[in-house]
From TrEMBL:
Residues 24-276 form the EAL domain. This is EAL domain-containing protein. The lineage of its organism: Bacteria, Pseudomonadati, Pseudomonadota, Gammaproteobacteria, Pseudomonadales. The keyword RNA-binding does not apply. It comes from Marinobacter xiaoshiensis. Keywords: Coiled coil, Membrane, Signal, Transmembrane, Transmembrane helix. The chain holds residues 568 to 853 of 853 of the full protein.
């Protein structure tokens, strides 16, 4: 995909945006306006803990609802990264995430909230300071804010990425390695990461039920990550058979359309309440 290519540094453009630079410029200024006018949104996708059958957290994913033509999240991010908008955009995402976390808590849902961070953010000299100030003002016992960084993006600049992640971890921020297994990082690099969680890439999960090789790779990854002390999340789980397989393999958590697509806050609150009711009924005596 263009996202993968971008993350490997092979191609610094997204064809649908860059084929006409005039429309690209229009898009950049529209995105800038959307950011300033608070027209971007974060949708939430739940993460299920297979060991407890509880929802342990939600991931925030960027959306641009006002557009006639929906712009995919990775295109929004690519555009922002190419123009320097990624700095204010990520800061908005982080501030908004704290707001969402407290809205969830107000409705009785104490959940972790995962946010996606661009490798560009890790290169901002003042990023750790910004994070420290922002998070310092908000109590972490209200559910952690987990920072997700993709495996491939870190490999562009492994030494500095490691430094930045270490300073976040030092502030008590949990770090998660996103899209794991889609790149080429070495095991010696992986074991140095100050991460608490690894998310196995969707490409290894999609055909789990039908491909023996994928089951071997995923089982080995789960075992290796557990030995290194990481929690393991499987992304892109779309059916019950795959969820059952992963549970049998000792995977800790799953995310995917099988549970829910990413939803706006109000819909996620309704989904969470409905699920909580169903679980309570199941466990009621008689
Ligand atoms: P990601 O962080 O790996 O997020 C998972 C993507 O897979 C999301 O796509 C989600 O909607 C999709 N997904 C979840 N479950 C399933 C499933 O069962 N099947 C399929 N086919 N897809 C599933 P989305 O929202 O389009 O985001 C794409 C990527 O854009 C994200 O990948 C992340 O790397 C990036 N992104 C999204 N929001 C942000 C943000 O606020 N900041 C930054 N820096 N990146 C973001
Ligand atoms: Mg993610
Ligand atoms: Mg991912
Ligand atoms: Mg991704």
């Amino acid at each position: 995909s263009s996202e993968r290519a971008r993350e490997r540094g092979i191609a610094y453009y997204t064809p649908s945006i860059d084929s006409y630079s005039a429309s690209r410029l229009t898009m950049v200024s529209a995105l800038q306006k959307a950011l300033v006018n608070n027209e971007l949104a974060l949708h939430l996708q739940p993460k299920l803990d297979l060991r407890t059958s509880r929802i342990s957290g939600v991931e925030a994913l960027i959306r641009w609802p006002a557009r006639e033509q929906p712009v995919p999240a990775d295109e929004i991010i690519t555009l922002a990264e190419q123009t320097g908008l990624i700095k204010p955009l990520t800061r908005w995402v982080l501030e908004q995430s704290l707001e969402l976390r407290s809205r969830l808590l107000d409705s009785g849902h104490l959940l972790d909230l995962s946010v996606n961070i661009s490798p560009n953010n890790l290169r901002e000299p003042d990023f750790p300071i910004f994070v420290k100030r922002l998070m310092g003002a908000h109590l972490q016992h209200r559910g952690a804010i987990i920072f997700e960084v993709t495996e491939t993006s870190m490999m562009q600049d492994p030494v500095n990425a490691l430094k930045a992640l270490n300073s976040l971890a030092y502030e008590g921020i949990p770090v998660s390695i996103d899209d794991f297994g889609s790149g080429y990082s070495s095991l010696s690099y992986i074991k140095q990461l100050p991460a608490s969680e690894i998310k196995i890439d969707r490409s290894l999960i999609t055909d789990l039920a039908t491909r023996e090789e994928d089951r071997v790779i995923v089982q080995t990854t789960i075992n290796m990550c557990h030995s290194l002390g990481y929690q393991v999340v499987a992304e892109g789980v779309e059916d019950e058979a795959t969820a059952d397989l992963l549970k049998g393999m000792g995977c800790d958590m799953i995310q995917g359309y099988f549970l829910s697509r990413p939803l706006p806050l109000e819909q996620m609150l309704a989904w969470l309440s409905k699920r909580r009711e169903a679980v309570t009924k199941q466990h009621a005596p008689g």
